Amino acid sequence: MFLREFIQKYPDDCLDMMTPGGFVYLTPEQAKGLLAGESVLAHPGDPECSMRLDAEELLSQKILSVRHQNHVCHMFMDYPDKEELEAGQKEADGLQEMEKERKLKERVKANYEAYIQQLKTKPAPDLIEMASEIAAAKFIYEELSVEGAFGDYADYLLQFENPLEVLRDGWLEEQSYDHHEELDHALWKMADRGFGVGDYPMLEDGSANSAMEQGVTMC
Questions:
Q1: 3-state secondary structure of 22
Q2: Angle in degrees, 0-180, between the axes of helices 131-144 and 163-175, rounded to the nearest 10
Q3: Which residues in 71-209 belong to E strands, given as ranges?
């Protein structure tokens, strides 16, 4: 186990360590500071000869042995070999990505809940006009709720206070092209196949022409 994971697992213990860079003693508060990137003091056996030790250098060291005694962890540390270092970095990167994805999901959920509350204050005619926007927001929310969805874009989306709104508007913009040709093609296929004839209620013979004639007369 690496020191970073150990501190995260035992945040309330003091750490008494023998490291390649010297002896290091940390209180729980100092250990939290180490995780935040703060350097610590290490000495070769005489505290008067202390020197600063980089946070990442210490956090990436592996624990060779550990002994718990009265909430103090006495540990021997060493540098990891290349394979262990790469594996540890991959694990750390994976944990960071998972944390970003968790934050994104929480923010989008809060955005969606606030959006629903806003919709409840609007009259029915306004909601009808907003149908496409509401559908887009629901679609985006459900897609982002899927485990592992769009994690690669977490850094980009977390820049925004309301990533749901940004995604919703971007999605609507992508969908705002002319569908006339698609509808024309669909109607041609429907008429050619006689789609719906016999499956839907039909007007009696002549009724359609009569309705059209009435419409022309009224105009």
A1: strand
A2: 120
A3: 72-78
